[in-house]
Amino acid sequence: MSDELPLPERILDAAEVMLRRHGAEKANVVDIARLMEMSHGNIYRHFPSKKAILDAVAVRWLQAVSSPLQKIANESERSASERLEAWFHTLRAAKRRKVLDDPELFRVYHGIAMQMRAVADEHVATLHSQLEGMIADGIARGEFSRELDAKAAARAFMQATMAFHHPLMLMQNCPTDEEAHTAIGIILNGLKAGR
Amino acid sequence: MSDELPLPERILDAAEVMLRRHGAEKANVVDIARLMEMSHGNIYRHFPSKKAILDAVAVRWLQAVSSPLQKIANESERSASERLEAWFHTLRAAKRRKVLDDPELFRVYHGIAMQMRAVADEHVATLHSQLEGMIADGIARGEFSRELDAKAAARAFMQATMAFHHPLMLMQNCPTDEEAHTAIGIILNGLKAGR
């Protein structure tokens, strides 16, 4: 934890250490303050409650997934199908790292994100809107079929790739790289069909 | 339970009643025999152990899913994409019925099928081979792209439709009918692309 980071960031870093050590139930503001060698009053000036800290941890955790995806979605010099393919592989890799490299920590974070329904729903809405933007762009450029509805196609894209990035599927179903490459190829060809 | 059914079938029916009532752990051969008003020696003549009964229950339960799908796969007078679409909707409907109509019983059966790894693996292999057959047929008829590898495409098809029929996804992710229709349309167009 560097002192150069703004205090709220350092509080969240410390909160993550405590979450990792004790889980979301037992982690508390007093222990976070002790770890940071400051009074808990200092923490409450930035976060009014433990719930506010958990919420901010979940937001930051999910943004670490969605920010690189947003960057890809915005690369309008690339074709829509290149961006969709990069988006897919980046999301898959990020989720695999989170789920498989540190399953214990993942369970804590996933549990928090699931309790913070509003946060989780907003994250999914962000991903849907990135997909919709890229697909709409592909339709406008004549790269994808004009018969597509971008919003419906975005939702279908998310579902058709779910096996490759949903945490439960990564743990239970373990799709291979070859399956991922073949599937995204078929889906992208499907978006192009009937141009 | 009709007396017209062969005894092994009636034993499995009775086993299902006991599984529903007591779960896989507590269900036992003596109780099954009592329910059927016969000696348990009579049951052991057909099934050497409780494990053999559970195995047979799992096989029958999974065949209730795969048999109608096999029928669809065999309908060679229909186009490959019609059959794949019917296969997809039939699998989805069967899994939804099983998972959502009676979640308790589903959990018991699913637990048994997961313990009987060989049975479960064979079931998945059956589904893969149905898909591979339909896709190979579609390639041979010039309906699907000749660049496809039927085996790889079958595995990719299974993964790309997983969100619509995997029990965990049906419980947690609840894809809509519209998403299912849009996704299967994109996937089928993807198989056709580049003919």
TrEMBL record, chains A, B:
<dbReference type="InterPro" id="IPR041478">
    <property type="entry name" value="TetR_C_27"/>
</dbReference>
<keyword id="KW-0804">Transcription</keyword>
<dbReference type="InterPro" id="IPR009057">
    <property type="entry name" value="Homeodomain-like_sf"/>
</dbReference>
<keyword id="KW-0238">DNA-binding</keyword>
<feature type="domain" description="HTH tetR-type">
    <location>
        <begin position="5"/>
        <end position="65"/>
    </location>
</feature>
<protein>
    <submittedName>
        <fullName>TetR/AcrR family transcriptional regulator</fullName>
    </submittedName>
</protein>
<dbReference type="Pfam" id="PF00440">
    <property type="entry name" value="TetR_N"/>
</dbReference>
<dbReference type="InterPro" id="IPR050109">
    <property type="entry name" value="HTH-type_TetR-like_transc_reg"/>
</dbReference>
<dbReference type="Pfam" id="PF17935">
    <property type="entry name" value="TetR_C_27"/>
</dbReference>
<dbReference type="InterPro" id="IPR001647">
    <property type="entry name" value="HTH_TetR"/>
</dbReference>
<dbReference type="InterPro" id="IPR036271">
    <property type="entry name" value="Tet_transcr_reg_TetR-rel_C_sf"/>
</dbReference>
<keyword id="KW-0805">Transcription regulation</keyword>
<feature type="DNA-binding region" description="H-T-H motif">
    <location>
        <begin position="28"/>
        <end position="47"/>
    </location>
</feature>
